[in-house]
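Student: Hello, beginner here. Can you help me understand the protein record under this note? Any guidance would be welcome.
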Amino acid sequence: MRIVQIVPTLKRGGAERLCVDICQHLTLKGAIVKLVTFHKQNEFNYDLSTFETSQLSASVHLSVSKPNSFCTQSLQQFIAAFKPDIIHSHLFESEIVSRSLSYPRAKWFTHCHDNMRQFETLHCNTLFSKKKLTEFYERFYLLNRYRKNGGNHFIAVSKDTEAYFNRVLPKDLRKVTLLHNGVNISNFTRPQNHNRRRTALLELVTTGSLVDNKNQSFLIDVANELKLRGVDVRLHILGGGVNKERLQTKIEQLNLNNQVSMHGVVNNVAEFLWNADVYVHASLSESFGLVFVEAMAAGLPVVSLDARGNRDIIQNDINGYILAEQSVKEFADKAELLFTNKQKYADMSRHALETAKQFDIVNYTDKLLNLYQAALEGK
């Protein structure tokens, strides 16, 4: 089977990590895989030695007020020369660019890493927003391109995303399959020689871009609440982003410099997980949340706000807690309970490990290959 995976660039995001893992493990299973990117960037220093990669200059700009701009010749020539059986795109830029090609011989797959707002149906307020009008035009454009290339298959990463695409897609294109994202579990499993001894210090860790949706400000409030209770707590915030200065200012105003540390972008996320007690997360929305699986693979129970997509991973009082309300007190209660109740912590840590194994990338690529094969056979 000849497969092209397309992602705009190799940033640190979950979609990019998953795309590289897919390429590596499909290659191990005997597929001929090529990864295509549009921008020269490899922030995470991904290992690309086991499969072929190509960085091609390709772009498409759609507009409701200006002529559309297409730069897809190099990608079209690449696809025609490689003759793939499967073309699998990740993230919206890849979607627009790849579907501007013409190659109906392949089976096309869209990886729905989130509920892409560009697929939303027409609403009355669409007409009063240039941005929404442009997005609706992009939807119209893509639906036509799907049909011209012989249809499309959508891979939803969570039940929430599956429901969204089944709602917004027209009936003739409503081929949506739920396939939870996978993680290379071995990268996050705590080594046997790494002895993390639980002490009187409660170590919390969270990872994600420092943007409003990730809501790290709430976690700082949680750390402050635990401090006021007399708990010796350390919150490690991993990631970079536009809210860095604002969050640092809040830490200083609450006099939490000894309790909260902002580490920026790090390459050793696994080591932070291995040295922590509990993984905490406060995102307002998540399509799935690879970070939860990664934390559980390290044996960490999770305390998180309900972000919809993470409902498929977190089981209340089994491998963690998922909270419907933004209650600092309730969130702190759960973190403190996990720290003080050793038996509950041990049970939930064991269940976290068992949960992570269900999302291992090895099993994931088996399921993905089955989807590809079924599409090729017209099932």
Observations:
- The mean pLDDT is 92.
- Residues 290 and 370 are 22 Å apart (CA to CA).
- The chain is about 40% helix and 20% strand.
